[in-house]
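Help wanted!
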Amino acid sequence: MPGTTIVEDIELIIEDIGGGGGKNPPPGGDDGDEGGKRYRPQLPSSRRYATAILIAIISIVMFFMAMASAYIYLRANSNRWVPLHLPWIIWVNTALLLLSSGVMELARRRLALADVAQFRKLWSVATTLGILFLIGQLAAWRQFILAGFYVSTNQASSFFYIFTGLHGLHLLGGICALLYVSFRKFEKAKVSRSVAAEVASYYWHFMDGLWIFLLALLYLGK
Amino acid sequence: MVIYDSSGPAAPEAPAPGFLSRTTFNTGHKVIGLRYLWLALGSVLLGMLLSLLMRIHLVWPGVQIPFLSGFGGAPERYAALTMLHGSLMVFLVLTTAPQAGLGNYFLPLQIGAREMAFPAMNLFSFWATVASLAGMTTAFFVRPDAGITLWTASVALFCLAALLTALNFTVTTLDLRAKGMALPRMPLTVWAWFINAILSTLIFSILLAACVFLLSDRLLSSQFFSPLAFLSQQPASLAQSTLLSLWQRLFWFFAQAEVYVAMLPCFGIVSHLLSTFSRKPVWAERASVLALCGVGLFGFFVWGQHMFSSGLNPWSPLVFSLLASSLGLPACVLLLSWFGTLWHAKIQLNTAMLFALGFVSLFIAGGVSGLFLARNDLAAANVSGDFVTGHFHLVMGVAATFAILAALFFWFPKMFARRLNEPLGKLHFWLTFAGVYCVFMPMHWLGLMAHSRVTGAVLAVTPLGASFDSSFSASLRTFITVATMLTVAAQVLFLFNFIWTLWRGQKSEDRNPWSATTLEWSVVSPPPIDNFGARDPVVYRGAYEFSAQGSPVDFAAQNVASASSHPPLPTRLSASAGAKEN
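Answered by r_m:
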């Protein structure tokens, strides 16, 4: 079950923390049974990628929380807050991004069944939807500019541009990860395809959730 | 006997790396750690010279220093001096040296890993840090408007580097530990680096966000900190205070916890050294680990407290109150653990131990003055900047520097296979120890005197008293400046000791000159590229098994299976014997 391995690994880490690392290795083992294999370089354990992406996600959450708190603070303290009319294309974009997440999960199901060809197809659909989302966001900026709202117009529009811009930047990193999973020859890579797909999908779903959160902030804050 | 040696017959034949990959793009954690230390050494010297310049201008405003008078003369240049001094010391010395420098070098060694989890990312962090140092220093020389933008961008870059380093540290500690290195067996140094990495992950994101806001205001003319949004309807002063407080909020979210980021690795180092040179286990080791976690947790909760308490001016003394009171508990536990370790111990008073003890002394002195600052009424009564300056320099700056120096003296034989000169080191310690107290204690008095002048004005002091007061404080300021000059001059001793030892110092081919227990002492000095050679290390015990009374060796190394049947012989003789065994 390639789709679930890392989660189990992380549960193992957590057990390790709780249980104090468990047993001692057998005494004298270093002289006896391991004598045969002389040099055993540390294999790149796949769980390090999953751990890394989880920590990166925590860090990115803090980054956007700082921004969100500034938004809430200024919104509450300013009595010249100009309401923001979100461009309609934003809602289309949101649907595209949600769809992309869904397709990605379908793709990972195919991969779990070792159906690589189908996986590739669905994965590229998910990637395309992600790219479409980014293009849609640019179109939203254009609509916004045509409506006369620039970065410097007022605080609400500044927040609109910085939220969408920074989210887009993070999403661009996600798209690079998706393209990596698509085009990497995994026979030679340090990671397996399923691990790479899984780690990329964590990030992608997180980007999805983050966008919903930012959209809710912008929508409710008007 | 377990000896890790790279000279095993099946050691991998790595292709000889090219010049660039050996130098600029070397991803080895030890190489990067050492470079961070050199970077911090350069920054601390620069920062120290800046502080000297500030003191001189403060006491003798008219003095003309060749080359430098052009930079430090005007009043706004004085503010720039303070800013550069602060950013160099806080970011590139206190944040970089104990965590990125010593941590990069010794964390993989101490947990039995061969490399950091993401070596290329580590390399990127290093060069980003170098670039941010260059940016901050350049910002000082360009005109103020562009300078601020450049400085903010440099700080943002530093945040990014710190975040990636923290990510690397966390993943390495979680996933790359050797067989048998359960979390409770980790040395306290590793615990401190680990907790610090988690805390850094949380807080550097916030500073990064604040810097992005500021940069976008300056470059894209967005409206985050702009008073334009508050025009007309509110008095200008109110708009000013709201916007200022937004920046201060974002900044103090970070800056309160930054104190802990600088101190946490130092706590770990001091606990480790006190135990090793007292030849006793860390007293209440579990409690110490919990205290370290507590420091990290409180660092974060102070932030949370701050976030949810609305309408509170971030400069409010309440914040200091929270800071001090929340630090109080874990700090007391750590202090108790240190004294418990020292109690009835056969203390080996070498230079590393002296610096560790100096840290404890400075930490207590700074902590006591912190109690004054924690009181709302006293802080509100305008205990002036001098008191605060004295306090945080003593507890954060100087104490942390002492811990870094202690670590350098301790690990120098491992890093360079030579020992720093002890008599010179001790002389340097005593001069510095006396020097910093002479510099920063009078600052506390100056702050208290400013306080008494404020209340004294109400009581209408006699002209005689006032003139005595001002002449006394002027002479006190001169005294501080002279003491600063002497203390800075004393650092030449260390610099000489350091450089001279690198090339000419007493060789130390012993793997384990201090009879220490942790894994880095089980390999040759300096450690081979892959750290542990032919075999992965295996860990059998906790990190502080000292004081087996009566036996020829009074400690059990972590990689020794059974203390009685396998006496750890850390000498050169056994090293060569072990190599033959292999």
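OP: Thanks! One thing I noticed: Chain B touches chain A through 64 residues (CB under 8 Å).
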